[in-house]
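Researcher: Sequence of GTPase Der follows. Predict its structure.
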Amino acid sequence: MSKLPVVVIAGRPNVGKSTLFNRLVGRRQALVSDMPGVTRDRKEGEAKLRGRQVRIIDTAGLEEAAPDTLFGRMRASSESAVGQADLVLFCIDARAGVTPADAHFAAWLRKQNKPVLLIANKAEGAAATAEALEAYSLGLGTPLALSAEHGEGIAHLMGEIADRLPEEVRASKARVLEDEEENERPAGPLRMAIVGRPNAGKSTLLNRLLGEERMITGPEPGLTRDSISVMLEDEHGPIQLVDTAGLRRKARIDQPLERMSVSASIEALKMAEVVVLTLDATLGVHEQDLQIARLIEREGRACVLALNKWDAVEDRTATRKAISDRLEISLAQMRGIPVVTFSALTGAGLHKLLPTVRRAYEIWNSRVTTGELNRWFEEMLERHAPPLVDGKRLKLRYMTQAKSRPPTFILFGTRAEMLPDAYKRYLVNGLRETFHLPGTPIRLQLRGTKNPYVESK
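Model: Prediction complete. Tokens:
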């Protein structure tokens, strides 16, 4: 994966960092709310600024707090992002003027030996622009007055970012571009989303896979509010990991911010190719876990069931059997779903997860030849003939696979569209067993043939 120049947006809470991030990446990627402290984890996106591809990182608000508190962990994450930056965009609220917190963190930034571009955001109108001049006192150079919400000054900012990136980054980027011209363009990454109920250990899992404290974690449920995308590479190639906010029952969601978080999680699930449904193994399978699994099946995504906190399970045999029985009864449409047990906190057993994800992805992409499919289909018809409908037996003729991702088959025959659900399940289960398609959604579409001797009315 090529290394892009990194631009980090930093500042105290509620100065418009996420709104500015969305403007720069060109889409509404980060959650935005009037409530301060919405952003907790670093949000990354790519942007093309004056012809230069850069990586933009949105961070949590910088606040004074004890290291072991939530706000302390958020600040540590933001400071870690600043440490990776090639350029820092330090944002203040022009309408509020320079606050003691702004002055404190500006002093800290001056000691980091990082190029800093001072942004006076929310500078709508002449009065706010004049107030932005107060930011000279921060000692970070000339403030750039703009309004991220209204798009004022964004074009100028993009040019300033491109001009201020260090020369060595430009040279490195030029070498990367030369290398890409010489080599064949790599295939896109496997898209994997981590979903589940709050406090199942999704962010701890992502941190363990990355080998760094990338996400804010802790005992508090619901820490992750936005869907956070990061890149990982295993021996088979790149994987785009997306950590999501916990999904609760609709009846329990009453805050607008949580509704936005849930919408972002569902959107990430829909965009994924493989979804890792993470459960707290000490609690077993909850009804909400099954609802999430059914959503994954409806969206046609490959799924891996991840049983986290396995090290805390006392009777593992009984727990595994109880979970398998519950899945067999309540999730028959995804029979054979792969299950991985591990501890995200210690890393025990985690080496099995990515190979299982890769295998689920291969099954999701499976194709069956038409000849092989119809030989199987004839055997299925001989074993159990199609049922009678309105006193007449359905004449099923042949099958073909229309597409993969997920495997989708079309069944042709006279009045095939009237096939009962029980017989469709018989065929789907046969497809799953014979062609080794465990756990993946299977689509069976029915196409009736028109009788040419029957006059249409």
